[in-house]
From TrEMBL:
Signal peptide: 1-24
PROSITE patterns recorded: GH9_2, GH9_3
Protein's name in the database: Endoglucanase
InterPro entries found in the cross-reference section: 6-hairpin_glycosidase_sf (IPR008928), 6hp_glycosidase-like_sf (IPR012341), Glyco_hydro_9 (IPR001701), Glyco_hydro_9_Asp/Glu_AS (IPR033126), Glyco_hydro_9_His_AS (IPR018221)
Keywords: Carbohydrate metabolism, Cellulose degradation, Glycosidase, Hydrolase, Polysaccharide degradation, Signal
Length: 424
C-alpha cells in the first residue's frame, strides 16, 4: 500500500470516527428526559407533596390552586386567561357511575393502572398488586356499564374533550393491558370475543388521548410474535399493526402520513406534535418487537427493518430537539433556542411574587396578546410545533403551534428514555 493511500485511509478512519462521535453527542437525551418529566410536575395543582421539583423558582405560579381533585368548567376556563392561583371560574366535579357510564374514561384508567402495575412489579410488589386489583375492578365497571362519557356528561365534556372516536377502543385497550399485566386467560378471551364487536381494526391511523386503535394492534401484535403459533387467533392484530406501520413510512406504496420538507411527520388538525410523539413511540416499540422476533414488516413489495423504524423515530425526536430548518428546539428550556411565547396561562402571566395582586379573568388578556416573552419558563414543555412548511410563529394566539400538552410529552418520555439508555 502506498504511503499516500495509507494516509488517506487513516484520515478517512479518523474522520468517520469524529463524525460518528459528534453525531452521538449531538443531543443530550438525558437532559431532555429530565426536562420532559419536570413539565408534568409543573402541570400539577393543589397542595403538592414536599418532594415536588417545581416548588422552586421555575414554576411558582403552578404551585397552588383553590382545591385539589376539583375539575374546571371547560367553557369558562377557556374564556379566561388566569393564573391557577386566581381561578374563580366554576370548579364543578363530575363523575361517571351506573347512570352516567364512561367506558372510555374507565377503560383508559384501567389500562393506565394495569401498565403501572407492571412498572412496580419488582420494586414494590404490594403496590403493584393494589394497582392491578384496581385495574381489574375499574375495567369490570367500564365493561358492565357501556357508554361514552360524552353522551352521559355531554355538556360537561364537549366540545373540548368529547370522545369523538367512541368508547369501544378504550375497552380493548384496557383488556390488552390487563392481559399483559395479569396473563389471565379471561382477558385474552375478551379480546378475541370482542375484536369485531369493538371494531379493533377500524380507523388505525392515529394513537392519542381519543383513538387507541393503533396502540391496541401494536401491543397485541407482540403476543402473537412472542408465543409463536399459539396465538394464531390474534394474527389479525399483527396484520393490522404491520399495515399501520407501513402507512407511516415514506416511500412505500401505502404510505399515508405526510412529512414536512424538513422531515417532520405532519397530520392535519389540532396540535401536530401529539401525532409526532405518539406515532414515533409506536415506531420505536414496534422496532423492538421486530428485533426480538428477528422479523421485518412487509410493506407492499418492500419490507421495513427494525433499524429503519428506530431511525425514523430518532429522526423525529432529533427534529423536536433542534435538528430542523429553524434550528430551534420545540422543548422549552432545552438547547439555545426554544419557544418563548407558549400558549400557557401560568407561564405567560406574572408569578405571584412579581405581581401579588389578583388578576381577573379578562385582565389576563393583555399578557396573552403581549409580544414579550413569557416571564416564567416552563421547562420541558413541548409545543404543538411548526406548520406543514416547518415555519413556527412563536405567538400565544397560534395555539395549534404554541400550546404544550401532557399528551405531547407522555410518549416523548418513553422515546427519550430509550435513546438516553441505548444511544442511537
Ligand atoms: C406556515 O407558516 C408560514 C409563516 O407564517 C407561512 O408563510 C406558510 O404559508 C405556512 N405554511 C402552511 C402550509 O400553512
Amino acid at each position: 500500500m502506498s504511503t499516500l493511500l495509507r494516509l488517506a485511509l487513516l484520515t478517512l478512519i479518523v474522520l468517520l470516527h469524529i463524525s460518528s462521535s459528534v453525531a452521538a453527542a449531538r443531543h443530550d437525551y438525558g437532559d431532555a428526559l429530565r426536562k420532559s418529566i419536570l413539565f408534568f410536575e409543573g402541570q400539577r395543582s393543589g397542595e403538592l407533596p414536599p418532594t415536588s421539583a417545581s416548588s422552586g423558582a421555575a414554576t411558582p405560579h403552578c404551585a397552588t390552586a383553590p382545591q385539589p381533585d376539583v375539575l374546571g368548567d371547560a367553557l369558562s376556563d377557556h374564556g379566561c386567561w388566569e393564573r391557577p392561583e386566581d381561578m374563580d371560574t366554576l370548579r364543578t366535579v363530575y363523575k361517571i357511575d351506573q347512570n352516567h357510564p364512561g367506558s372510555d374514561v374507565a377503560g383508559e384508567t384501567a389500562a393506565a393502572l394495569a401498565a403501572a402495575s407492571i412498572v412496580f412489579r419488582s420494586r414494590d410488589p404490594r403496590y403493584s398488586a393494589l394497582l392491578l386489583s384496581r385495574a381489574i375492578s375499574v375495567f369490570e365497571f367500564a365493561d358492565r356499564h357501556r357508554g361514552a362519557y360524552s353522551s352521559s356528561l355531554r355538556k360537561a365534556v364537549c366540545p373540548f374533550y368529547c370522545d369523538f372516536n367512541g368508547y369501544q377502543d378504550e375497552l380493548l385497550w384496557g383488556a390488552a393491558w390487563l392481559h399483559k399485566a395479569s396473563r389471565r386467560r379471561e382477558y385474552r378471551e375478551y379480546i378475541v370475543k370482542n375484536e369485531v364487536v369493538l371494531h379493533a381494526g377500524d380507523t388505525i391511523n392515529e394513537f392519542g388521548w381519543d383513538n387507541k386503535h393503533a396502540g391496541i394492534n401494536v401491543l397485541i401484535s407482540k403476543e402473537v410474535r412472542s408465543v409463536d403459533g399459539e396465538a394464531d387467533y390474534l394474527n389479525s392484530f399483527k396484520n393490522n399493526a404491520d399495515s399501520f406501520i407501513c402507512t407511516l413510512l415514506p416511500g412505500v406504496s401505502n404510505s399515508q402520513v405526510q412529512y414536512s420538507p424538513g422531515g417532520l411527520i405532519f397530520k392535519t388538525g389540532g396540535s401536530n406534535m401529539q401525532h409526532v410523539t405518539s406515532l414515533s413511540f409506536l415506531l420505536l416499540a414496534y422496532s423492538n418487537y421486530l428485533s426480538h422476533a428477528n422479523k421485518v414488516v412487509p410493506c407492499g413489495g418492500k419490507s421495513a427493518t427494525s433499524t429503519q423504524l428506530r431511525l425514523l423515530a430518532k429522526r423525529q425526536v432529533d427534529y423536536i430537539l433542534g435538528d430542523n430548518p429553524l434550528r430551534m428546539s420545540y422543548m422549552v428550556g432545552y438547547g439555545p433556542r426554544y419557544p418563548m411565547r407558549i400558549h400557557h396561562r401560568g407561564s405567560s402571566l406574572p408569578a405571584i411574587p412579581a405581581h401579588p395582586a389578583h388578576i381577573q379573568c379578562k385582565e389576563g388578556t393583555r399578557f396573552y396578546l403581549s409580544p414579550n416573552p413569557n416571564p416564567n419558563v416552563l421547562v420541558g414543555a413541548v409545543v404543538g410545533g411548526p406548520n406543514r412548511s416547518d415555519a413556527f410563529p412563536d405567538s400565544r394566539p397560534f395555539f395549534q403551534e404554541s400550546e404544550p400538552t401532557t399528551y405531547i410529552n407522555a410518549p416523548l418520555v418513553g422515546l427519550l428514555a430509550y435513546f438516553w439508555a441505548h444511544g442511537a
